Amino acid sequence: MKVYVSVKQAGKRRAFLTKEELELKNQPTSLRALITEVISMKVEEYNDKALDSPLVQYLSFDEIETEIQTGKVGFGYRTNEQKADVEKAIETAILAYTDGLYRVFVEDKEIEKLDEPLTIQEGDILTFIRFTMLSGRMW
Questions:
Q1: Beta 102-106 vs 109-111: how paired, if at all?
Q2: Residue 65: its pLDDT value, please?
Q3: Parallel/antiparallel/unpaired status of strands 125-130 and 102-106
């Protein structure tokens, strides 16, 4: 099932940092299942990235423009040899949701409870809004 994922960080001027097509392997029946599916896919993608860097590192102008749209310009490899733990990543994502660090919307409807029934259709837009903690001094 193809869906589209948008990530928004509260406080940023641009509406969406990225809108990416995502192919879900299973039909999620709850928000918990959706988070588990997305995190599993992203951890697998991270773990599959090459460890080594090419001999000569460069990006073309088009690659830089594409990377700018996602909010991070990089060479697409990882330097840490340790692979991410899927179970720990899922547990952390669920905890972050319950702590209110991000919200999830399917189309324009906020999904508020982790285990309530969820219906996602082909082509739906999933929006993850990440909240950022304020920092500063008290005067």
A1: antiparallel
A2: 76
A3: antiparallel
Cβ atoms of residues 49 and 76 within 8 Å: yes
Q: Please provide residue 55's backbone torsions phi and psi, each rounded to the nearest 5 degrees.
A: -60, -45
Task: Tell which residue, 46, 28, 29, 45, has the closest CA to residue 37.
Answer: 28
Q: Considering the entire predicted model, what is its pTM?
A: 0.70
Encode pLDDT of 34-74 as tens digits.
999 999 998 988 887 755 555 446 667 777 777 677 666 66
| Secondary structure (3-state) at 38 | helix
**Cα 99 off chain centre by:** 17
pLDDT > 90: percent of the chain: 35
